[in-house]
Amino acid sequence: MLNSKIFLVPFIAVLILMGSLNAEEGEPIAIRHWPGNGFTVESMWDLHVGVGLNDEAKSLLPRSVDAEMEKLPGNKGIPCTLYREANSPKVMLIDQAEAARSDKDKIHPMVLVISKDHEEKLHRLANPLSDETIVYVDGAAISFLDHDLMSMEKRIAKLKALTPVEKQPLNRNVVVVATGEQFTQEICEQCAKVYRPAMMIVNASIKSVGGIEVEAVSHNTVGFSKRESDSEETRFVSLGTTPYKMTDELAELFAKKEAAQKKSREMFAKLSVEQMNFKPANGTHTPRWNAEHMMGRELGFFSEIYHAVDPSVAVMNLNPKQMPKDYTFAHADWTGEEEARQMKRVENFTRRFAYLLDGMDLNKRAKGSRFWTPRRLLVQMEHHYEEHSANVVKKMDLEGWPKK
Fold this sequence. Notes:
By secondary structure, this protein is an alpha/beta fold. 34% of the residues lie in helices and 18% in strands. It has eleven helices and 16 strands. It has helices spanning 8-20, 55-60, 96-101, 121-126, 152-161, 185-195, 248-268, 273-276, 287-309, 336-352, 374-395; strands spanning 29-34, 38-42, 48-51, 67-68, 80-84, 92-95, 107-114, 133-137, 140-144, 171-178, 197-202, 208-209, 212-213, 215-217, 221-224, 235-239. It has a nine-stranded mixed β-sheet with strand order 6-5-7-8-9-10-11-16-14. A five-stranded mixed β-sheet has the order 4-3-2-1-15, with no helix packed on it. Strand 1 (29-34) and strand 2 (38-42) form a beta hairpin. It starts with 7 loop residues before the first helix and ends in a 9-residue tail after the last helix.
């Protein structure tokens, strides 16, 4: 929970809302900067939100956004929940009241807020700066000061009226985005003192904030995971507006791995819950284990490497127990189609943060890995998907294989 009163009221409400929807915290999200000072936020559940995107930015996106903050339904200031249920391809956007009434299990929602009027009761109580555009997802609150409804004159007056507490604990779940030219070094320093965010994204002209050097990132993406400690310093970052471009050699390795994944997903997507849970009489694994194992291995190995380069990307281990007798289903009610989506989510994660492989020797052990070189890992994952997919196809000829 946040330590500052800045986000206290809305964040408590959102935690209650998200808790009722069974959201898990701490998974890495990606924040991307686009031409025209627009942004997108991508979650591990592959929800994709746009903030301030112009036509040029939209033409450059890897895929269409699921929601644009400026086009939310209903009155601004009313939180909307974006989610997609397991076993359903449809992304839904509902208001807070409908989400609170729902008794369905919504997985990893994004809660989207655009404040309308700082005199309204919620925002007067919640935030001395108010009028902000906020995305809440996976335990993090991302506040887009560039795209809120407060004039810079009013913001400066509000900031100057506040007395920052210098030793105030870090808001370890908060990211502040203030990249417009109007956010000078002086204003950024004042914002940092008031918000005490875990991360602050500033414009490229600012080289340091409060004596802390700004990390200048040449591409347009930065990852963020919920921090464990509130005693760290704020991380200041500036982003380009161009996606990371792989070398031809790395791009070819990724393409081969992803081609194998696609074939595997297409096979799994046809299977029912009963077929995914089929336990062969010969004591071999269920098809579901094969799906979980392939996905878990890729996620675990790549997140170890990514985390070693940037701790903002958390290490994730979803690999199931190895022996059939020790294995329990992670999601016994997921269809093969949803397991295929899970595999796709991991594929997207690996590509989304592939910029952390930049500069690595493909033939030397990767930082954070016990034995993998980037090349060997990508080749192994390609063969791994092919091998385990073939094993599942063989099970379809075994006695007792469910027909539906």
